[in-house]
Amino acid sequence: MKAQFHTRREFLKTSAIAAASLPFVGALTSYAQTAAPPRKIGFALAGLGSLSTHQIAPALQNTKFCKLTGIITGHPAKAERWKAQYNIPDKNIYNYDDMEKMADNPDIDVVYVVTPNGLHADHTIKAAKAGKHVLCEKPMEVSVEKCQQMIDECKIAGRQLAIGYRLHFEPNNLECVRLAREKKFGGLKIIEAGFGFSIGDPAQWRLKKDLAGGGPLMDVGIYALQATRYISGEEPILISAIATTTDPVKFKEVEESIMWQMKFPSDVVANCSSTYKIRGIDRFTAYAEDGWFGLEPAYDYTGIRGRRSDGEQIRFPAIDHFAAEMDDFAQCILENRPTKVPGEEGLRDIKIMMAIYEAAKTGKTVGLS
Ligand code: NAD
User: pTM for the whole thing?
Assistant: First the structure.
């Protein structure tokens, strides 16, 4: 099979042409083409767990338009460690109960909410009320109502709200969007997508309904759902689903595995799966009239690559997803333009995931308008 390694220049040329008609692609183009920033946007991280520690804080060091200026944590010992490691002044260290004091702190422009899903609304609303823009991790929240509150409060505060959909800035995923939009293999017909892993610690918040909102669907199935939406460029109108649990002790509150099907207005159908039971499901394939293309792994932090039915590989140079996502949001703020991944995008996923759960629970096909 012939390998095709595109250069960044080639990719940007392609995406610049596509950007006018593809909002999904536009963000990367802007990120890559903008010159030195007038000032760096100050980010405070709320929640210093695994993602903040291993991905976001290191990524902030790779950004062009952002700097890590503050932290919000409930653990004084963690605050001490971060203060020393990232040179964060005492005046920029907050806890979840005194976030309103950030209103007087010009060092912090953005609060990046990286806490368990069911706390996102609380932390987003506190940040917005303190006059800060918010970048909130996926899934946006655990209910449609809470997502709507987040959108409303950020609007009232006059601040931007973005959701941490890092793959909207990832070149291999963007290339697949291009192949779909340009009908490189003809009209799209079927999408298969899945993301799962084997979950460890039975005591973790990801297995608690109130904090997680659900099981693998909310955590990683959301990536498969996103892929079907950005590859098709459409919103699902019909959903059916089946959830299974083989370990009812560990998975007492949330599903262990779930499979769902969606029909889109153009009659594209998607078959998706997500699990906390099995390692190694991390892919999507789009089947069109004259061929197919897809990625595997499709959603990882590194190593994303794919294949096409004509024998070419899809393999753009790796980027730091989180740095790209944060730089784009910083530019949105600096240039006073809307983000490509607003709260409304997060809300759409929550509405669809709630319909998937309803379909699994009732055994009936659920319609979405
Ligand atoms: P984590 O458990 O490692 O960290 C969560 C943090 O929230 C911890 O520092 C914890 O102390 C804090 N916290 C505050 N209140 C808490 C409470 N009541 N219960 C438990 N923890 C509390 O989780 P994580 O993996 O860092 O995930 C955080 C968020 O990031 C989640 O919304 C998750 O979906 C999202 N995430 C996104 C990606 C991505 O690729 N975009 C990857 C992993 C996680």
Answer: 0.93
Looking up tokens 């963000």, which residue turns up?
27
Residue nearest to atom 43 of ligand 1 (CA): 51
* Pocket around ligand 1 at a 6 A CB cut-off: 47-52, 74, 114-117, 119, 137-138, 164, 166, 205, 211, 219
How far is Cα of residue 154 from the mean position of the Cα atoms in its chain?
19
pLDDT (mean) for 53-80: 98
pLDDT tens string 29-53: 444 455 666 799 999 999 999 999 9
| Contact partners, residue 6, CB within 8 Å, separation at least 6 | 316
> In ligand 1, which atom is closest to the CA atom of 165?
41
Locate 83 and state its tokens.
């203060």
74 DSSP 8-state letter = S
pLDDT tens readout for residues 179-228: 999 999 999 999 999 999 999 999 999 999 999 999 999 999 999 999 99
